[in-house]
Amino acid sequence: GDGFTFAVVNAADNDTSRSGGRSDLSELLGYAGPGHTADGQGLRPPKFAVECDTRANTGANDPDRVESRSDGAGDHAAVVFWGRQSETGQCAGVGTTYQCIQDDNRHSRAGVETVGQEAPGDMPANSRNVSQGADYFARPGEKAWLRTGTHTLRLEVDRAVAPDASGNHAYAIRVWIDCGDCDDVLTAYAGAAPTLSREFALSAALHAKLERVLFGWTEATGNAVQRITVSDFELVFLE
Fold it and tell me: Quick check: helix, strand or coil at residue 209?
């Protein structure tokens, strides 16, 4: 199988009927944005997800084609957002122009391309495809570490109520994988450094759209069969 995401999407522009991405592109993990979906919409930004990817789609083709995720070589976990956006719906990159609707979980390549924009308040850039930053994690020499066995995963998200001097709202995402004694969801976890972490800021308009959210899992597989079991799930909103 290709893996899954745990996604948090804005409820202003999404509902529970939405799915993301073309059915013939399982590497999108069901998380892609507007485009070839049953309702023509997909999962619309702002949104973010923890990607648990168990198939290395290492190619850097046009994001509307197969082998276009720019993955690293092996299983990995990453924080993903929503890729590039354009008023015209057309994006330019990797030597071509393409519909910028299927790059939501495409990874940035250091020195080659940045997927998404990094301007404060705008869409965050997606994680790079190597474990040099805090928002992408792989285990060297263990290409299949994530696809078998049982793993614990803890996610914490902080968001600022008040804007900063620029009018943007700060967010912080922290993820622990295979953590110990990390099931107390009523207090922040301090037992170990996070496996993944990311800080970013969103404009007041994007922040307002995340006042109400939908959360859940997206997944996809190609010719192979995958079985994913989620157990002991807990969710708490703290003020």
Answer: helix
